Every structure is written in structure tokens, then in C-alpha cells.
Amino acid sequence: MKISEFKAYLSSVEEITFVLPNGSYIPPHFHLTEVGSLTKKFIDCGGTSREESKINFQLWKADDFDHRLAPAKALGIIKDAEEKLGLHDSELEVEYQSETIGKYNLSFTNGQFLLIPTKTDCLAKEKCGIEEPGSIPVSSSSCSPESGCC
């Protein structure tokens, strides 16, 4: 979900509700502790240089059980971040504490924001000899040190 979509959905709700992948809810007294701009430059295992940019929200819960972040207040925090950080309409990533800091994508259903788990992936499958689901096998050999794959 892009930040523009998030803001539009935020404008349509009276309270902000985040649902974790297991169906439980982030407590309603959560705080939006960070709005950031993240740029990641990296080289995949096939040797291709890549760059991705995202907008990052960090959600945090404290013991102030009466705290509630109203949609209008959240929009104000986002607007402030857009102005001060020069944010573009990028994909949104949400961080929330579980066993470690979890990273999630978002979707919106029935007035609630659903946290969608992110997953690791090989970005150079063709160089590693890894087939996409449903594809026709090219070779039965596995990744070898000479292939350029990790």
C-alpha cells in the first residue's frame, strides 16, 4: 500500500485498527513513534545492483492504556514527515515488536489495516537455477559454485 492510499483510508475511519497476521489486534493504545524514509541499496546474489525506497512507520505500545491515536492526529504526523523529509508516494512498511522487530506490508479491509508479513526471496532465481512455481523445469542441476549464484 502506498502512503497516499493509507492516508485516504485513514480519512475514512473514526479509529485506527491494526490487525496482526494471526488475527490478534495491536492494542488500541499504540503509538506511532516514527515515520521515516528508507532507501536500501544492495547487490543480489546474481550480482545485480538494486535500490528500493519505502516509507516506514514504527508502531509501539506502552502502558498508557488510555492513549488513542486519532486518525486526524496520525494524518498530521504524516503531513509533518512529508514536509520535513520530502517523502514521495512510496510503498509503506510497518514495524511492530514481536519476538524481534517485525516488518509488514499493509492492506485495508472492513475499516481495518491488516499487517501482511514480509518474506525473504531470491531475486536472481534464473541465475541460481531456481524455478518459479508453475514454471517448466529448465534443468535438473542444482546451484553450483560456477553458476554465479550464492
Provide the gyration radius in Å.
19 Å
Instruction: Note poorly predicted spans.
Output: none
The portion of residues forming beta strands comes to 25-35%
Secondary structure category: alpha/beta
Overall form:
elongated
Give the quaternary arrangement of the chains.
single chain
Number of helices: 3
Helix-strand pattern:
HEEEHEEEH
* Biggest β-sheet description: 6 strands, mixed
Work out the helicity level: 10-25%
- How are strands sequenced across the largest beta sheet? 1-6-5-4-3-2
Q: How many structurally independent domains?
A: 2
Explain this structure:
With 150 residues, the protein is α/β, with parallel strands linked by helices. It has two domains: 117 residues, no CATH class; 29 residues, no CATH class. It is built from three helices and six strands. A six-stranded mixed β-sheet has the order 1-6-5-4-3-2, with helices on one face. A hairpin with a 3-residue loop joins β4 and β5. It starts with a helix and ends in a 22-residue tail after the last helix. The mean pLDDT is 90.
Strand-helix topology:
Elements (H helix, E strand, L loop, with lengths): L2 H8 L7 E2 L10 E14 L5 E13 L9 H15 L5 E7 L3 E9 L2 E6 L7 H4 L22
Parallel strand pairs: 1-6, 3-4
Antiparallel strand pairs: 2-3, 4-5, 5-6
Features:
elongated, 18% helix, 150 residues, 6-stranded mixed beta sheet, alpha/beta
